[in-house]
Amino acid sequence: MNEAEGRERVVAAARRLHERGGESGALRHASLRWGTGFLVTPSGLPCGRMRAEDIVRVALAERVEALARLYCRALQVGEPVLLDEVEMAQVVEKFRAYGRQPGFRR
Asked: Residue 59's beta-bridge partner residues?
């Protein structure tokens, strides 16, 4: 499979998730392992308008580096507080529409 085919597969997977009601919370993004990274759906773009060229290639090393930087910054102000399941559900609900394009309809 070449990269163009991989991108088409990610778009197809995102559309299947959307059709099954999965375009919310943690299931918002579809991805495919690609080399040392991933092909990932972009934030805020409705599945019906998504094209293969919209898929983003993310290097795993870059992702790990970014997360490590965030964690180090969090440690500078103290030990991070972990949310329990109820608190996490509240956060997910508050961010449900985050990143949506204007005029987005479910």
From this structure: 37
Query: Is 99 part of a structural domain of the chain?
Result: no
Residue 5 to residue 1: CA distance in whole angstroms: 6
Q: Cα separation of 47 and 23, whole Å?
A: 9
What is residue 25's DSSP assignment? G
In sequence order, which residues have a C-beta less than 8 Å from that of residue 61 and are 6 or more positions away? 36, 37
In angstroms, the CA 84 to CA 22 distance is 22
Q: Is residue 47 part of a domain?
A: yes
106's tokens: 């479910």
What's the domain range around 78?
3-94
Domain for residue 80, yes or no? yes
Digit-coded pLDDT (tens) for 76-102:
999 888 899 999 999 988 888 777 666
Note the pLDDT tens digit of each residue in 41-72.
887 787 778 899 999 888 877 878 888 888 89
